[in-house]
Amino acid sequence: MPLARSLAAALVVLAVPVRSQQAEAPAPLQHVAEVGERLRALAAAHPERARLEQVGRSLSGREIVALRIGPTEGEPPGVLLVSGLDGRRLGDVDALLGVAEALLADAPPGAPDRLAQGSITVLPLANPDGAAALLGEDGVRRERAGNGRADDADRDGRTDEDGPDDLDGDGLITWMRVPDPEGEWVADTHDSRALRKARPERGERGTFRMLAEGHDDDADGADSEDGSDGVQPDRNFMQGWKEHDAASGALPLSEPESRALCEFVQARPTLFAVLVVGAQDTLADLPKGEAKVPDDWEGPLPSLIDDDLAVLKELQRRFRALPGGKDHKVKGDGLTGGSFLAWAYHQGGRLPLALRLWEPPTELPKPEGEKGDKGENGDKAEKPAGDEKAAEGDEKPDEPAPDAGAPRGKKKGDTSDEADEDKPGSDASSPVPAAVLAWLDKDRAGAGFHAWAPFHHPQLGDVEIGGLLPGTLQVVPPSVVAEKVPLVVALALEVLDARAHLTFEDLRAERGADGLYTLHATLVNTGTLPALTALARSARTTRPVSVRLQLPDGAARLAGPVAARAGRLDGGGGREEFRWVVAASTGQVVHLQADSDALPAVTAEISLP
């Protein structure tokens, strides 16, 4: 297949609309630099409402930028939206670019008013080097979750000397189907183009090996085992970081992408919540929590504190009340080890929100006339056959495994013959699942699949090259992006609206003898969210709210602290009372101020009678 033709075919899966489309889909990203260009154009068109912010640069020097929408001066409370941590998930990048454009186009109506005292910061592409690989900016289109850092995967003293190769010259890295009586794969009984694992326990022998397109460049007997996937930024953070794993990096925050993101958040304590759009989810399916912080707590907790889980549950309720929220059933991973989201909560003390916009079909279509076949447009796809998920980014070319979005197999423990034989399924570990091919045939006119073509391999003999095009299992279709952008916008605004709001109430001064006054003040949180997460308060990741007494000249404090720390100040009226005794004169005015790193200061006055 000629290079130009194959590249055009590869992009069809990203651009062909499905049967119905409620809104115009944002234009799919064509090159990495376009992210900065579009954000700069928005900032220039709305200088009073948007500000471009430099986050850092990738391993190869590509810029990582964000757009803050809201007041351009100061640091108002805000929500951070992040996508593109996995370089293969370009549809999520398209979605967040669409979110930024929608907010500045006053969609929904009233958004500017809701952003008058708060901000939404959109960081669409956190791993530009990974995205550049899928877009073919280095010459060949391939899937790369990581940043391309060189690694000696086969421990032979050389780095990246045996990566994938574009053998057929079509500009794509796909798969090789290698005939092998000792292989573990067979053609799927539902679709001969698809593959499933052989069942040796039933006397079934494999007929194929599956390898990434390439050959044994270093002549060590293994094909394409030392490529350049690099370190995955979303596995390079401290919380749950996996040692001795090349994809996780040599050390936590060893990569410029993850370090830049960490420093960006730490420098902005008013970012009280993080929403990651990607493979993770904490809204459709709540993560687990701990009953309380252990008394002997010395290290990171394995999960959320129950108090914070209760806050997340309320945000989930609000999410489901949004238009489209109740129908969003796509579940993803929770706070996975080494991820930015896990760090944002456990070390950063922020509320960890995550949304997965779409997943490919996970079951074969039902026969015509049978209920349940509703297509794939993100509304209600075929019911997943199980809950087992593979860890994103763990697949290896010579041992294919799905990413977190790959189809799942039968339910755990289901060993019935009916489930496996009489009703052929879509193999959970297959790089070419039958259910996905059926979806592509039905809704994409077959786009997204590279037909198996014979090829004489110089080392393996006669093989076939083909399979799913890069990104087919990860890239959210444009029609789904168009459908989900309003939902993400509404969710971000809802979280912003729910932020903590502090105010002083019950202000009074009781006059005593000899010019003494007892001052009373109550600090109240009238917002929905707490002033601090329970973890932030316990781990002291953020300076808590402090209340300061400012006396006029000639007055003296006799009892009570100069600066008193408030507690968590739960949402919905959480309060704390303060009292001081001062010596002052009638008519003088005492000033109070409450502030923290994460919240703007609020002030009040008490006039002495």
How much helix is in the residues?
10-25%
Mean pLDDT over all positions: 84
The CATH architecture name of the largest domain reads 3-Layer(aba) Sandwich
| CATH fold category name of the largest domain | Aminopeptidase
Structural class: alpha+beta
Task: Just give the CATH class of the largest domain.
Answer: Alpha Beta
Number of helices: 12
Task: Strand order, main sheet: write it out.
Answer: 1-2-4-3-9-12
Q: How many distinct beta strands? A: 22
Q: What is the number of domains? A: 2
Low-pLDDT segments: 1-22, 372-420
Approximate shape:
elongated
Q: Could you give a short account of the major beta sheet? A: 6 strands, mixed
> Radius of gyration, Cα only, in angstroms?
28 Å
Terminal CA distance reads 89 Å
Note down, in words, how this protein is organized.
The protein has helices at 3-15, 33-45, 90-104, 111-114, 128-134, 256-266, 306-321, 340-346, 417-422, 434-443, 478-497, 534-539, and strands at 50-57, 63-69, 78-82, 119-123, 175-179, 185-187, 195-197, 208-212, 271-277, 289-290, 304-305, 351-355, 449-457, 461-468, 502-511, 516-525, 546-550, 556-559, 563-565, 574-583, 589-595, 602-607. With 609 residues, it is of the alpha+beta class. It has two domains: 17-149 and 240-291 and 300-424 and 477-499, Aminopeptidase (3-Layer(aba) Sandwich); 502-607, Immunoglobulins (Immunoglobulin-like), CATH 2.60.40.10. The strands form six sheets. It has a six-stranded mixed sheet with strand order 1-2-4-3-9-12, with helices on both faces. The longest helix has 20 residues, at 478-497. It starts with a helix and ends with a strand. Mean pLDDT is 84; it is low at 1-22 and 372-420.
